[in-house]
UniProtKB/TrEMBL annotation:
<dbReference type="GO" id="GO:0005737">
    <property type="term" value="C:cytoplasm"/>
</dbReference>
<dbReference type="GO" id="GO:0005912">
    <property type="term" value="C:adherens junction"/>
</dbReference>
<dbReference type="GO" id="GO:0001725">
    <property type="term" value="C:stress fiber"/>
</dbReference>
<dbReference type="GO" id="GO:0046872">
    <property type="term" value="F:metal ion binding"/>
</dbReference>
<dbReference type="GO" id="GO:0030036">
    <property type="term" value="P:actin cytoskeleton organization"/>
</dbReference>
<protein>
    <recommendedName>
        <fullName>LIM zinc-binding domain-containing protein</fullName>
    </recommendedName>
</protein>
<keyword id="KW-0963">Cytoplasm</keyword>
<keyword id="KW-0965">Cell junction</keyword>
<feature type="domain" description="LIM zinc-binding">
    <location>
        <begin position="62"/>
        <end position="121"/>
    </location>
</feature>
<keyword id="KW-0862">Zinc</keyword>
<dbReference type="GO" id="GO:0051371">
    <property type="term" value="F:muscle alpha-actinin binding"/>
</dbReference>
<keyword id="KW-0677">Repeat</keyword>
<keyword id="KW-0479">Metal-binding</keyword>
<feature type="domain" description="LIM zinc-binding">
    <location>
        <begin position="3"/>
        <end position="61"/>
    </location>
</feature>
<dbReference type="GO" id="GO:0003779">
    <property type="term" value="F:actin binding"/>
</dbReference>
<dbReference type="GO" id="GO:0061061">
    <property type="term" value="P:muscle structure development"/>
</dbReference>
<feature type="domain" description="LIM zinc-binding">
    <location>
        <begin position="122"/>
        <end position="174"/>
    </location>
</feature>
Length: 174
């Protein structure tokens, strides 16, 4: 009993190719998109149709937000987008952000250090980013260790202090 090719509906005499529960003449088993021959049984299927690997990737795989290419392996989903693992990196320093906490600004990912350096408030004394708690005084923000008396350079840790030329002075130096 001969098989019938699902594409041309003619009997298959000779080599029969069986795939996806159907029988084909070998020359009729082609990619549903490009119509190119499927070689070495390397194909993907979608809704019962065979596709070469390249067309399947273009048509059905998620695309990386950074490079716009299909993602064939592990997908990183972050910031409402999909990324290749190697492309989910800090916008500034290019350090991988996979498996770490990160910050976001205008849809771009940043490591914590670069985010605060670029967008964070700066200490009134040293000018470095304020990444944790800050002392708020004199309408400015300071690192705890930078909020010091401008005369004796000792930390001001009491609630009352004086101000001279816009700088804090501890109660001992006033």
């Amino acid at each position: 009993m001969s098989s019938t090719c699902v594409v041309c509906n003619k009997p298959i005499t000779g080599q029969v190719l069986s795939a996806l529960g159907k029988t084909y003449h070998p020359e009729h088993f082609v990619c549903a998109k490009c119509k190119g021959p499927i070689k070495d049984n390397k194909f993907q299927q979608h809704e019962g149709q065979p596709y070469c690997d390249e067309d399947y990737a273009i048509m059905f795989l998620k695309k990386c937000f950074a490079c716009k290419q299909p993602i064939r392996n592990k997908i990183i989903h972050a910031l409402g987008a999909d990324w290749h693992e190697e492309h989910f990196v800090c916008t500034v320093c290019q350090t991988s952000l996979c498996g770490t906490s990160f910050m976001e600004k205008n849809g771009h990912p940043y490591c914590k250090k670069d985010f605060y350096e670029k967008f964070g408030e700066k200490c009134a004394q040293c000018g470095q980013p304020l990444m944790d708690q800050a002392v708020v005084a004199l309408d400015k923000k300071w690192h705890q260790e930078c909020f010091v008396c401008q005369k004796c350079k000792q930390p001001i840790d009491e609630d009352s202090f004086s101000v001279q030329a816009g700088k804090p002075i501890c109660s001992k130096c006033t």
